[in-house]
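To close the chapter, one final illustration. This time we ask the reader to focus less on the individual chains and more on the assembly as a whole: which components sit near each other, and how the overall shape emerges from the parts.
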Amino acid sequence: MKHESAKALLIGTLGVAAAMSLAMIASHVSPIVGFNAFFYGAFGGKQEIAETLASTTALLFPALGIAIAFRAGLFNIGAEGQLLVGGLLAGWIGTRIDVPPAPAIAAIFIAGALGGALWGAIAGWLKATRGANEVISTLMLNFIAASLALYLVTGPLRAPDAAGPELSLLPHAYWLPTLLSHTRATIALPIALLAAFALRYVLDRTWYGYRLRAAGEAPEAARRAGISLSRVALWAMAWSGALAGMGGAALVAGELHRFNTQLSPGYGFIAIAVALVGGLEPLAICLAALAFGALESGGLALQAAAAVPKDAIHVIEGVLVFALAARRYLGARGTATR
Amino acid sequence: MLDDVDLTCEAGEIHALVGENGAGKSTLAGIAAGELSADAGEIERDGRIGLVHQHFALIDRLCVWENVVLGNEPRRLATIDRHAARTFVRELGERYGLDVDPDAYVEDLPVGIRQRVELLRELARNPSILILDEPTAALSPGEVGRLFATIARLTENGVGVLVITHKLDEVFAHAGRVTVLRRGIVVERRPIAEITREQVARAMIGGEIPSIPAHQPTDGPVLVRVEALAVPGAIEHLSLRIAAGEILGVAGVEGNGQSALADALAGLTPFRGSVERPARVGVIPQDRLVEAVIPGWSLVENAMLGRERAAAKGSWRIDRAAARAQCAAIVERFDVRTASIDAPLATLSGGNQQKLVVGRALIDNPEFVIAYNPTRGIDIGATATVHGELLAARNRGAAILLISFELDELFALSDRIVVIARGTLRGEFSDRRFDRDAIGRLMVSA
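The assembled structure is written out below.
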């Protein structure tokens, strides 16, 4: 892990602890009681740890995807939509195939990756061929993805047995095996960790990763060195979407066991914060995802035990991202005038 | 950076501050103008010191008068008095012979004119001393002449001008005094009448100037054939040939199609017409920091740029040991001075960064080299290294296209010179019989 990302993590942790103390004091809760409830909620027992790990997994996939795009100089803020489309395709495939569990689970993840990659590649293609700003296109594609998913599950793909806007339940054999029995912590977590190691290897060690980073760091120099910026835009967005889509597949096969439009409570957005807190370094992002996963599950416990609203946790996450983004510019101020 | 430096600039004098890149000239200028702070010592200013940076600090999307009055806008209630501002800028320009349309947008202006805007902006603040950091680095010969005419007018008005440069021609043609800085120390300071050019050059580099290898006659086969090249908006019907073992110099004022020519030959821009060239091309881009390097990355990673796939030798994984060895070879052969090949490139001086860029382009002995202002903004020692390597590549049998805005560089290296103006070739000078006046006239021909 690089020095920079270690520093970002430390600052983030201290900042969040301070902000949480303030939120607790504002809610007339002693920080000691509050933190006790928080840590119990995040790590207090098997069920609590499993919840934290489940949130970690849900954040880790899209955060890794976002890191690919950001490292290639593309501000993909469409992970939420990519996750949704990936989940939709994964949930659909899962109800359509009839094979043994292992290949079925593989097919579900591949479908998720393809769906996400397709959705990401749309923005990448628009950027590569038309120069469309990916911030705007990915943001807008989030809305399109949500509407498309809603249309499909209420219309053409609606399950006959479904109570609401959702697809049929996956066969029980296709549910992801759990790490801890009777919890939501599944083998999706080691898959995500594997993806993180693979991503680190690709970015740091291969010529392909070098090209992505060069294009992100100095596009004009990269272009003149023979690196096709359009190809980078297209593929980096596809890879980015593929990881987010795998996150959707993990949620479908591991938690809900069917596709539902309420699949993600904004994981694709929180993942932006996770990626930034992790300094866009895959392994640091794993730690950042764990921290945010703990915030998610501990925050729920805090709300139940100490009446600190869970929204306060989201405010804190937002402030954290803002502070990290601002830090870059505050730090640059001293050296800007040369 | 600087150690116990003292410097004075008097009203009405032109004082040249010379030194190699990394000697501390820009730092000293920044401290004098109050933009940087010194650890020790003091600065006495009698009035304002204005500083014109080497890299202009203009706002591209504002027009000329807006840039000039920025921070000092004439007001009318809550709004800017545009009329007063325009008049002010026009009059200022007339007073100093800096002819600029106040309503032109900076992004539309060529480099020479932008510099006038930058000068106007400083002059608008009535400086008693004006510091110009490498003011002629991007100017055509004609523009250089105009700039020094303006400087002369300033000194007549009692302004002291400190010119930072490493072009000794300019120093000896215009300056009254010269101060030589080497590694942050003043090593020489004298009135210009009391020192020779050789003494200044020796003081700058702290030793003898490396000589460049002599020319040899060329009669190799033609390697590069360009027929009826056209790039919309930049080049019309341009044809040229370069033989093996030949340096073809392209003389011209910046913005007359040189960039499009270089890009077309490098395969970076679409064109019409035919271009035949060898497959192995080494390119030295014009703008080092934007087009050639990734400043935050290490020397090793920069040396890999453009050859990253070759560095993986058919697999996905980059062979790091080989990449490091390659970088070390460039550093060694091209005399790149660095503490470590793992240091970020940005920690090197401009000259050493450029040596790495040149080394990267030449280390594989390419058959065709495109060198665009290969020594722009770098010091004498680094320039000699780069020139020596280009000649060595030529003597190995490479065809070299040398685009430069400095006639001296073209005269020193070229076997043949063509003149480009408005996207077409206007004349050719072969057998190293170069006529400076004729070339200068062709450069500005309509």
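The two ends of chain B are 47 Å apart (CA to CA). The longest helix of chain B spans residues 141-156. With these observations in hand, you are ready for the problems at the end of the chapter.
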